[in-house]
Design a protein that fits this description.
Shape: elongated
Number of strands: 11
Order of helices and strands: EEEEEEEEEEE
Distance between the termini: 40 Å
Number of helices: 0
Largest sheet: 7 strands, mixed
């Protein structure tokens, strides 16, 4: 089994910052892409940012220049630094990891349980 545990969510004022972390554990041979997604009330889950195993990153237009995704491959952990937060960033944030559980296994996408981020004055 593979578990993803997120931390770092909370309540912050507009213009503030938060840093999310997501650590993967369990039977892991390697991890391909890791990423963050979010889901606001009444809306579909959307991509926030992804990072490949080699470090290439991809961001949603709405967060470019404000959010930074990074990863520590030795710790199987992905981070999301969120600056200049806006009320429209309020959502549950989920991490995702494409995990190979063996050298000849196909990668499979695992999800964390989600962490609430609320941006409000």
């Amino acid at each position: 089994q593979v578990q993803l545990v997120e931390s770092g969510g909370g309540l912050v004022q507009p213009g503030g910052s938060l840093r999310l972390s997501c650590a993967a554990s369990g039977t892991i041979f390697s991890i391909n892409a890791m990423g963050w997604y979010r889901q606001a009330p009444g809306k579909q889950r959307e991509l926030v940012a992804t990072i490949a195993s080699g470090g290439r990153t991809n961001y949603a237009d709405s967060v470019k220049g404000r959010f930074t995704i990074s990863r520590d491959n030795a710790k199987n952990t992905v981070y999301l630094q969120m600056n200049s937060l806006k009320p429209e960033d309020t959502a549950v944030y989920y991490c995702n990891a494409e995990v190979k559980r063996g050298w000849n296994a196909a990668p499979y996408g695992y999800w964390g349980q989600g962490t609430q981020v609320t941006v409000s004055s």
